Amino acid sequence: METEKIQTMHPDPTKSNKKILLLKYETIKTTLLSILQVSELTHTDLMEKLYQEVKDTFEGGVQWYGEVVKLDLEARGIIERTKTKPVLYRLKNDSIES
Q: Is the pLDDT confidence value at 96 over 50?
């Protein structure tokens, strides 16, 4: 069983994020990025699409892991929040990560 972990980051430097299994991180990261390649989404829509994509194969709280990884991707500058209302999530223009 995969036991290697990754310390995730938080966009607010005064906060710390969780240490999670690398395999789960990679699964959620890949799925979030593929979803955001198609369109900008609200938080609710993003988490719902994530859930629909991985619910049958992912073991654990999809939306909890989704939030942890989403925050990490924001902190790493891979995704960003728009300044619109409602706030939308999107890939950063200069992000080529997949």
A: no
